[in-house]
C-alpha cells in the first residue's frame, strides 16, 4: 500500500481556532511513550491511575477524573450526572452547550437548556434568576443546574469573587454548578490562580477539563469536585459512547499537560499572543475591539469585504457576519511573527478599502 504524502506549509498559521493547532511535542512524546507493551483497558491502566493522582493534586483529594473523547461528550455527561430526567440547566445564550453542540445536551442528554442573555458571555446572579423559578410545577422543567464557561465563549473571564457569588446563589436554591473548562488553562493563566483555586475553591461541583485547545491530540476529562456525580458518570460515560478502551492514550496526554507546568506555559503563551494581536488591532484604524482581550481570543468589528479579502491569506471565522464581527484565536504555537504578519496583512487590506 502506498501512503500519500500531504504537503503543507507548517510556517503558515491561521487565527480561526485553537483547535487548528498541532500537537505539542511533549504531548506527542507522551503518546509514543505510552505505546509500549500492554495495559489494562477501559481505564484500569497505570497512566489513568497516575492521572487521578495528578488531578487530586490540582483539585483536592476527593476530586476524580473520567477521561472522555471530546468536549461535547464531557459537557453532556457531566450535566447528566447532576440532573434527574426532568432537570434543566441555566446557561448563557452564548454558551457552547447552547450554540455549538447541535442540540446534544437536549437530544442526547435529555435535559432542557434555559438560556439567558448576557452582555459579555458571563452569567450573573441576576441573569440566573430570570430562569431560576418554577420548582414543584410539573409543567416546567426543573432548573437544577447552572453551567458557566471559563474563559467564556467571548474570551472574557469570571473573577473568583464572581464564581463564588454564582455557586453560593445556585447552591442556596438547590442547584449545582458545572464549569465548561475547554479553555480553563487560559483563564487560570490570565488570572494568576491555580486550577483548584478557581474551581474547588469557589464551589464548582463538576468540571469539563479541556485539553484539545491547549495542545493535546484528542480527549478531555470530567472532573468531579463534590460528592454525588462520580458514581453515575461511571455508567453515563459508557452509555454516551465516551468510554475509551485504550484510555491510556487519553490519560497520557492529559498527564503530559497537567502533570507538569505545560498547561500553564502553553496557555500563558497563547494569551500573550492574543494580547499582542489585540494591541495591534487597537492601534489600527478601521477595526475595533468588541470585548476586552482577557484570554486567547480577540473579537472585533471589521467590514465584511475586508474580512473576506484577509481570509484569502489567513483562516478565521465570522462571529456575526450581519454585524460585521469576527473572532481571532491564538494557540500554544502562535508566534510573534504570525501575529505581526497578520496585522500587516490586516492593515494592507484596510488600506485598499
TrEMBL record:
PANTHER family: L-THREONINE ALDOLASE-RELATED, LOW SPECIFICITY L-THREONINE ALDOLASE. Pfam families: Beta_elim_lyase. Residues 15-298 form the Aromatic amino acid beta-eliminating lyase/threonine aldolase domain. CDD domains: TA_like. Belongs to the threonine aldolase family. Signal peptide: none annotated. Its cofactor is pyridoxal 5'-phosphate. Keywords: Pyridoxal phosphate. This is Low specificity L-threonine aldolase. SUPFAM superfamilies: PLP-dependent transferases.
Amino acid at each position: 500500500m502506498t501512503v500519500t504524502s500531504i504537503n503543507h506549509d507548517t510556517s503558515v498559521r491561521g487565527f480561526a481556532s485553537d483547535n487548528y493547532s498541532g500537537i505539542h511535542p511533549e504531548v506527542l512524546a507522551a503518546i509514543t511513550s505510552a505505546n509500549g507493551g500492554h495495559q489494562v483497558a477501559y481505564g484500569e491502566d497505570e497512566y489513568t491511575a497516575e492521572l487521578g493522582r495528578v488531578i487530586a493534586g490540582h483539585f483536592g483529594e476527593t476530586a476524580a477524573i473520567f477521561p472522555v473523547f471530546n468536549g461535547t461528550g464531557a459537557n453532556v455527561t457531566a450535566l447528566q450526572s447532576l440532573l434527574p430526567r426532568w432537570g434543566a440547566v441555566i446557561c448563557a445564550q452564548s454558551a457552547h452547550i447552547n450554540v455549538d453542540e447541535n442540540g446534544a445536551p437536549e437530544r442526547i442528554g435529555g435535559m432542557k437548556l434555559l438560556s439567558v442573555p448576557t452582555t459579555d458571555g458571563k452569567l450573573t446572579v441576576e441573569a440566573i434568576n430570570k430562569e431560576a423559578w418554577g420548582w414543584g410545577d410539573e409543567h416546567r422543567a426543573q432548573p437544577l443546574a447552572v453551567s458557566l464557561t471559563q474563559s467564556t465563549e467571548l474570551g472574557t473571564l469570571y473573577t473568583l469573587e464572581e464564581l463564588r457569588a454564582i455557586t453560593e446563589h445556585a447552591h442556596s436554591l438547590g442547584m449545582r454548578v458545572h464549569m465548561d473548562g475547554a479553555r480553563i488553562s487560559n483563564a487560570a493563566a490570565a488570572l494568576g490562580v491555580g486550577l483548584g483555586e478557581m474551581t474547588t475553591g469557589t464551589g464548582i461541583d463538576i468540571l469539563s477539563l479541556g485539553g484539545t485547545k491547549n495542545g493535546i491530540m484528542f480527549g478531555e476529562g470530567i472532573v468531579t469536585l463534590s460528592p454525588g456525580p462520580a458514581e453515575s458518570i461511571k455508567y453515563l460515560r459508557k452509555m454516551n459512547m465516551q468510554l475509551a478502551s485504550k484510555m491510556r492514550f487519553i490519560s497520557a496526554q492529559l498527564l503530559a499537560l497537567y502533570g507538569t507546568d505545560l498547561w500553564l506555559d502553553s496557555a500563558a503563551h497563547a494569551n500573550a499572543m492574543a494580547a499582542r494581536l489585540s494591541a495591534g488591532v487597537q492601534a489600527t484604524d478601521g477595526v475595533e475591539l468588541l470585548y476586552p482581550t482577557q484570554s486567547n481570543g480577540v473579537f472585533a468589528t471589521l467590514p465584511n469585504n475586508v474580512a473576506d479579502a484577509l481570509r484569502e491569506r489567513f483562516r478565521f471565522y465570522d462571529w456575526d457576519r450581519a454585524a460585521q464581527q469576527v473572532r481571532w484565536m491564538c494557540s500554544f504555537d502562535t508566534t510573534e511573527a504570525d501575529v505581526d504578519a497578520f496585522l500587516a496583512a490586516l492593515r494592507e487590506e484596510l488600506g485598499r478599502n
